[in-house]
Each structure stands twice: as C-alpha cells, then as structure tokens.
Amino acid sequence: MPDAIVCENLVKVYGGVIRAVDGVSLDVPEGEAFGLLGPNGAGKTTMVSILTTLVRPTSGRAIVDGLDVAKHPEEVRRRIGLAFQVSTADGELTGRENLEVAAGLQGIPAPEAHRRIRELLEQMQLAPAADRLVKGYSGGMRRRLELAVGVVHSPKILFLDEPTLGLDPQGRAGFWDYIRHLRKDTGVTLFLTTHYLEEADQLCERLAIVDHGKIVATGRPDELKQRTGGDTVVVKPSHGEDLAPILSAVPGALAVQVIAGAYRVKCDRGEAMVPLIVTACDRAGVEIASVEIRKPSLDEVFLELTGREYREEDTEHGGWASERLGQMRGGRP
Amino acid sequence: MLRELGALLRREWLRYIRTPVWIISSLLVPILYLILFGQGFNYPGGPAQYLGAPNYISYFAAGMVGFVALTMSLFSGANVIFDKGLGIVKRQAATPAPRSVIFLSPLIFRSLIALLPAFLVLGLAILLAHIPGFVGLTISGSVGVLGAFEIVIAVLVLALMFNALFLAFGFALESPQSYFGIVNLLNLPILFTSNALYPPGVGPDWLHQIAEYNPVSLCVNVLRENLFGSSSYYPYIPEVYLMGLLAWAAAFISLAVVLGRRALRTP
What CATH number should be reported for the domain whose range is A229-295? Predict the structure, then answer.
C-alpha cells in the first residue's frame, strides 16, 4: 500500500518558543485508520492543521497523497476532507444550505451536489432536520453535519480533529458507528486526533501516542497495551513508607515502579497478587491506604511512557477541556 | 472560481435575509436621519450657499447618500471577525476555493446591499419635497441617463472602497473590540472632513482643503453637480470627481488586497 500521509521530522514552533510539534515522523498507509492520542496541548491539532495546509511547518516535511503540503497546498486541499474540533457550520443556514455552500466551495456542479447532499443527509440521519436552521441542532447533529461537510466531495483522506469532543457517551458511540460505515463504504484513509482513550481504542487500527509535541509510542492498540506486560497492582502506603523492598520480595512480582508516591507492581495476574501483597505488607507492619488492580489499557501505557497519569496531565492545563475530560472519564462504563 | 464565488454570495444573501432586524434598522436609520436631522437643520439660504442646491435639505440629502454608503460598509468587517471566531473562515480556507473568492464574496455582496439604503434615502428625500409639512430634495438640474449612471457608479465605488478597507481590517484583526476601535477612529473623521453635511463657508480653510479631496466629498459632488445642474459652483465636471473617486478606490482596494492576503496567508 502506498502511503497516504508521511511526516518527516515535522516541527512547528509558535512565537519562537513553544514547540507545539517537536520532530514528529510518521506514516499512514492508504486506507488505514490512524489516530493521534494524547492529552490536550500535546500538539495534535497543530499536526492536523499542518497536514490540512492551514498551518505551515517550521521545518520538516509533510506529504499528503504524495504531495508536499507546503509546496502544493491547493492540490492537497482537493484531496482531503476535514472535520474540525468545534463545529464550523453556519448557524443561520439550514443543514442542507451549509452542505450546498460546502459543495460549491469544492467546485461541485449543482446537480451532482444535490444528489450527493441528499445521500449524505440520509446517511448521517439528518434528513428530517435538513431544512432547519443549524442553530437549533443538538451537539450530536452538529458533529454529524460537520462530518458531512468534511466528506461532501468524497475525499481520499479524512482528517477528524477530536470528532466527538463534548458528546455524551451515547452520542460518541453513535458517531463511531458513522465513521465505521464510512470507512467500510468508501475505504477512506482516516487520520483522527483524540484525547479519549476509548475512542482511539475503538476506531483506530494504529495509534501514535503524543505528549508535548513528540511521539512517545506507535503501534496497534493491542500492541501498545501489551507493552505494559500484564497486570499492574497499584499499592499506596498510608504513611509514605518505602514499600519497594517488601513488594519486590513478593513471589510473582516482575517489577516494581514508583510513580507519584504509588507503587506499581507488574505481574501476570493481579487477582492472584493482591492477597500476597496485602499479607506481605501486613507482616512488615505497614498500613496500606489502597490496593488496585489495573488491566492493560491505554491509560497504563501513557502512564508508563510519560510517568504521568493521563488524567493528571490533563487537569494541569485546567479550563473547560479538562472538565470535559473528567466528565467523560467519570461516565465511562 | 465562479461556482465558489456563487456559493459564498448565496451564503451572504441567506444570512442577510435571515437577519430582519439588521435589514430593517439599516434601512430605517438613514430615513430617521433624513427626517430628524434633515428637517431640523433646514437652514436658510439658496444655491449660492449650498453649491448649487436650492436649499439646505437638498444639499444635506445628497450628502446623506454618501454618508449611508460609508456607514453601511463599517459593519462588513465585523461579520468577518465573527465568522473567524466561529471557524467559518478556517473552514473556507481549508477548501481548494481561491483565497480571492473568500475576500471578494463579502465585498461584492456588501457593496451592492449598501446601494439599497443609499438610494432609498435619495428616493425618500425627493418624495418628501412633495409632502406638505416636510422639506425634501428638489432636483433643480436635468439629470440625464449619463448623470444617473454616474450617480450609481459613484455610490457603488464609494461602497466598494470602504467595504474593501473595512473587510481587510476584519480579516486582519482578531477581536471585535479592536475592530470597533478602528471603526470609531475612522468613521466620524472621514465624515466630518467631507462636505457631505456641512455647506462650504462653515469651518476653517484647512478643513475645506481636506474636504475637497475626501472620497465622500468626491462621491457627493458627482451627485450634487448632476442633481442640481450647478456646474458653475464646481471647478470640475462630474467625471473628474468620479475619476478622483476611482483613484481613491484603487488605492484603498490595493491596500485592502495587501491586508487581506496577509491575513489569509497560511501562518
């Protein structure tokens, strides 16, 4: 398969100091669903902006469908579709009118545009609301319209920047279904960014985990999860005692790591480890505040690669997005 | 290019017709000015005082047409700022449509729309002259087809040049506050250094020097000289003023293109 997207040592520096994208190299074969996963502020949107010709890279190269984005932006724009993080539809226009304007901007002749728009409205279940003003649409409808606008010209490569930001879990699951159908029907190459771990896990064939503008790991979601090598038992002492010697001596403990005052014991099966750990601590006379089994997950991968909890990193940035992330994670099954 | 332009012009039109408050107020404000100020400021005097206009209201009403074309253009950049805030401009920039279309569509639409209230004022002023209890614009010249054509072109060019300028500010600036700061800074000085509202003889000489070259004055001169057939009060024929206006327009539109291109360039 030829590559739909290639990045070579891509760098974007804002204002001479902020390295939003810091030496990213990646390649996405045609037809793949590729995801950039990382906390807010990791540089994901800047990556999408570079690949969609909206921002010029400071250095490095980005090739989309065989074309250098810096040298042939117009040609690239013809081949790509884009759904922004925040809905860009015009609230004073109806859903259909928004799609008609989008089709016009892509240079699609009217009869063909009308046929395509009817089809898209059906697919996205927007047909009943097609002639209502978008300002009355729900969040989920706006996301679907944004996606429809992004694919009105049947692009070869589709970029989705945080496509389900702000949707409730049900809305998110529904949106994922649209994306799956779209991929099955059109074979479009998908490049999506998300800070929802579950979204990355559900939609992407391959992922790059990004942090502070750098890729810290790339692989299939299951590959990445295997990196954590089995279960992790997280033990917190009540009074900050050093548990490392005690935990290392427990039979079955493969490794012990300390991150933010919590001891992480690697093992094959967490369920079997917990009683052994509790007994060992009890014998040593150490009071335990909490014990927790963590199964392999992308949260764990992120934690081990960056040394920070995924959630913690996000709240550091504060603001509305972190609140949303908190809500989302609280609402996860 | 035409298909893309058509799509964006249609968007402008749809947005326009869906804001009835804006339509009504943009038509009502100049009418109120004409009725409230025009009637109230009806100073005595004849053609000698008012560059050939038979009375002050006739002089004032012709000036109002230029004034309305200017004020209508002041708002066009604000829409761009809101569109930018909503990601609509970014959405347009991500399509293969030429950048010039993104700038041209509001320019064309806004300039044409500005003609509506401008000529509504002219029509109403002419009508008022025939209503008892009101004073209005009396056409004392013989406006031919050429004269009428010159008048429409003059108002359109004035609307185009100011729309281009204020749209460029809209594309270049990020916040509505800074935009309205600029509008506030330029609006009244442009108006009050023109001869749109003040008859000659009022104010110091240096102000008259400026007023002679003010684009609003040049536009209004084309109107007055044609409407009042008063060539003896003007050193030049209307075509000369029209040429002057076109020169201004060329300069402003060039500036707007430079500003607009910079603003739409990929960062």
Answer: 3.30.70.980
